[in-house]
Amino acid sequence: MTYETLKASQKEAIKILENSYAKKRLSHAYIFEGEAGTKKFDTALFFASLLLCSDANKKPCGQCHHCRRIQHQTHPNLYIVRPAKRMVVKDDIQELQKEFNKTALEDGAKIYIISEADTMNPYASNALLKFLEEPHDNIYGILLVKDSTKLLPTIRSRSQIINFHSLPEITIYENLIEQGFDPQLARLASAIHHTTDSAEAFLSLPNVYDLIDIVYALYEDLSQQKPLILTFEKEIFDVVKNTDDYQALLDIMMYYQKDLIYGKMNHHKNLIFDDQQAIMETILPHKTKAMLLEELQHMLSLKNNLNFYINERLAFDNLLLALERRTNHE
Predict the structure, then answer these.
(1) Pick the CATH number of 205-325 from 3.40.50, 2.40.160, 1.20.272, 3.90.550
(2) Which end of the chain has fewer CB atoms surrounding its CB within 10 Å, N or C?
(3) Is 60 helix (H, G, I), strand (E, B) or coil?
């Protein structure tokens, strides 16, 4: 990811770091808080490059010897802690302290990044706290967390917390296009998911095309007033295996349903499944806007219920029966 793309993704976080650097008001410890996929680690590398970049006129330049090594995570002044198992343990922090007590191989700031820092056990937390209580000049720490409240209050009080927000839909879409994904699939994935990583994971599902085909088949049958459950039973065989598959299938259905609502409102530029307009035009005369919205609400309720132990097959059957019944014959 280029620095320009990163800045567009997390404008507020980058601005805070750049302003702090420009005004020489850097904190010795930062907490980057946000969900997975919000580019916390990339921003930590950006911060390291900001501190070590050779280009005084364009910091960070991304091209100098320092910036390149930081991007490849091989710079001797950069130390990264990753939990070997499910948590960061005391040995990880002690190894960090030992490394930073050595004489630096190169001049300039020394930066450590602790990934998944909110998984630190109490021993690791106390070891890190001692390290923070005696800050050394030109040493900066970045703790990457999903939830900063899981850190010791004394660690939080000695750190500056920077919040990372979900990426804008257009940014996720552009990231997916850059990686060569089909534009329609990129629109769908960026609408469903709030991070590039989760959108990529969705598009990398081995059955994602089959799931879309199931939704297409269901709405085509709806346009021809055929029983939906028969199609559903036939199409999901060997495709839908678990709750995650049902969740993905329902996500796709919900955005097809939203396309129907946009079609009812003549907002065709908002369509994701624009290749389905002919089928949608067959369905829309038999559905009022209120019906379409109530059906979408039914889907949203089902999505919430899928997080609990329910009979997914029966729940989907009830949804399909509701889609069949709710038809305006006027």
Answers:
(1) 1.20.272
(2) C
(3) coil
